Amino acid sequence: MSTTPVPSFDDPAGTWNRRFAESGYLFGSEPNAWLREHASVWSPGARVLSVADGEGRNSVWLASRGLVVDAFDIAEVGVAKARQLATERCVTVNFAVADCDSYGWPEATYDGVAAIFVQFADPAMRERLFVHIVQSLKPGGTLVLQGYTPKQLEYRTGGPPLASHLYTEALLRAAFADLEIVVLREYEAEVAEGSAHRGHSALIGLVARRR
Ligand SMILES: C[S@@+](CC[C@H](N)C(=O)[O-])C[C@H]1O[C@@H](n2cnc3c(N)ncnc32)[C@H](O)[C@@H]1O
């Protein structure tokens, strides 16, 4: 079992590029389980953004479901692997290398946003990121988000070992107060998503719709 090392906030791109330079897929090549469970909120043809998409497991799977997918990540090595995965699976994803603060977030554009394990963000960055996510959704568009709760600090089976980066129901309710909460659940589960997210885990999942 491997726990994400304390991220280098001085050089996040370098840190993640080094991690993604290893062979294989750090979080696997299949989609996150919460995303798989809830992606039916989007119909084929819907336009969806995968935030901090890593090595592409989520964006490529969404594209294989007939969605029109944009994806970005700060780590160019991850994005290169994501492009390769899309080619292998014969799907098209509009990939970009970008920091979440500099991504050209379009306004009221997406039918969906997938934000899966984006807990690199400290509270200040998280606030900016969540505002961008909400504003990029069309009215009626749906956010599907997955993260770890503070209980995960006891399990150390993935995620940053930093309480300030983890989510509670109260935190997500407050952050997404302008959205209609469709599902918000804290739960524990066995996770098997690559080598970095593996083992008994304290998770939180959100599905929320822009009014
Ligand atoms: C735990 S991984 C999750 C990747 C992907 N969402 C998944 O579920 O497979 C976190 C991702 O955030 C990216 N990242 C870190 N800091 C970032 C930033 N400031 N802007 C955009 N992406 C960032 C990393 O490169 C990494 O791919």
Written description of the protein model:
The chain is an alpha/beta fold. The chain has a single domain, classed as Vaccinia Virus protein VP39 (Rossmann fold, 3-Layer(aba) Sandwich). The chain contains 7 helices and 7 strands; from the N terminus they run H-H-E-H-E-H-E-E-H-E-H-H-E-E. A 7-stranded mixed β-sheet has the order 3-2-1-4-5-7-6. Helix 1 crosses helix 4. The longest helix has 14 residues. The N terminus is likely disordered. The site of S-adenosylmethionine has 18 residues, from helix 1 and helix 3.
| Strand count | 7
Count of discrete structural domains: 1
Largest β sheet strand count, sense and barrel closure? 7 strands, mixed
Shape: globular
Mean pLDDT: 95
Q: What molecules are bound to this protein?
A: S-adenosylmethionine
- Please write the string of helix (H) and strand (E) elements: HHEHEHEEHEHHEE
Low-confidence stretches: 1-5
